Predict the 3D structure of the following.
Amino acid sequence: MKNKKNLFENSIHAIFLILGLITVASVILISLYLIFAGLPAISKIGLKEFLFGSEWASTREDPKFGILPFILTSVYGTSGAIVIGVPIGFFTAVYLAKEARPAVKRVTISAVNLLAGIPSVVYGLVGMLVLVPAIRKAFGIPDGAGLLAAILVLTVMILPSIIKVSLTSLEAVPKEYEDGSLALGASPTETYFRISVPAAKSGITASIVLGVGRGIGEAMAVMMVSGNAPNMPALFRSVRFLTTAVASEMSYSSGLQRQALFSIALVLFLFIMMINAILNYFMKKDKVD
Amino acid sequence: MGNSDFSARRKAYIYTMRFLMIASSVITCVISFSIIIYVLFKGLPNISWELLSSKPSYISEKIGILPDIVNTLYIVLATLIIVIPLGVGAAIYLTEYAKSKRLTSIIEYAAETLSGIPSILYGLVGMLIFCQFLGMKTSLIAGSMTLAMMNLPTIMRTTQESLRTVPMSYREGAFGLGAGKWRVIRTVVLPCSIDGIITGCILTIGRILGESAALLFTAGFAHELNGLVKGLQSSGASLTVALYVYAKEQGEFEVAFAIAAILIILTLIINFIARALGNYFKNRGSN
């Protein structure tokens, strides 16, 4: 009787252990698949040629598989979005955490939540029909789809992550820190920026890293506004990101071209893993602070 | 505020910072509300009963999005059915069984890693594993499995959070009455964690409704109207994928905006439910 019960409990334990390990198994599976799918093309093309080749012509008679344009576009595009988005997100977060009246805070936070919930294809659609024509008119260029449009769309898309993570971290700053500063004669605004912000700096940094991850990984919205030509990045030029390079040719690719797309995915994956590691470091630090 | 006592430099600093804070908040709100109002304004007039209740026909050159709505529902259902047992099970393991700190932190790190992987990579891996290796072809079920993998961390985290709030004394009471571990979990722990599971489901539904990149290569583009079983085995576009195809590849912006408006309305509803549930659970917790 006792043995039977033990067997039952042990098998339940085993089932839950397996369920618990599914996340680990998924991560391993994803990594292995991307590595094994991605390596063959890199070894055929040559690592240096693949990463630093500046020409991508996958369907030509004599194909070229250089992904430097995609890497640079992803880096520039994400940096651009960070440069514009971080200040807006940062100041909004400080305002919400410290200054805003409850009603204002409620409305603004629901605005931020809505931004976070809007599907990326909807951002893409609005970008295509509002932003791209606006850029074309404002700068007098033949086509507004390009890096600038992608940067602006990404800026809006990373705002919610930046605001929410910074806000949580700013709200966790002990009130005693601020009281001390106020008692010494600093104004509330000075206190927020000279005491609260430095105290929350790990969390704010984490929010920026999270934004970088979001920006580098976004595909659909960017695909709809960036023009999609494999050019070296320039603000008004039609460009292709790492993500959109994978997505745009996948449906009709074959042979080495298809393998090369998997290699691009592998490069993107490595970027993301690096960003995750950095993010994890700052998140942990924020908890300790 | 009593700013009048400060030196000119400090005043300038204070006013600049205040201006930047307010300006940024205004920008955030204006962007958010103007996108929503613009999409609703452009999309709502294009939503008609005919659009919602028919499928696309080449003969009459009409577009209907009923298949896409049905596909989206199937995907949501199938994903939840797959991901809930997995996510809840993983959360139970972590809070009720796991003794090794190392294993716990490995599992949690894996979950964080999963939630950081962009959806386009899920789409690619899903295509390789489910569509090709497991031979499911491009189908809704392959798409749902991909989304299940993607949303596993969400369900796991929300369930874990609510399991942690179950007081230890409940479990000890049940153990004291001679109940086995499984019985305690089934009768005491699980019923108390229903809050977290529901919250996780709402968040997951929101993410599924908005997801497109992961479905592009796993669930495909077809606009056929099928029953549940056949539907899951065949390829089909979700609302988001349909939006993308109509906007980017066919230039049917009216239909695209109609779908966008539907998606925005669904997002608003999901946000509202999530907030209402959050408040409800919080109030119930404090009573």
Strands of chain A lie at 56-57, 64-65.
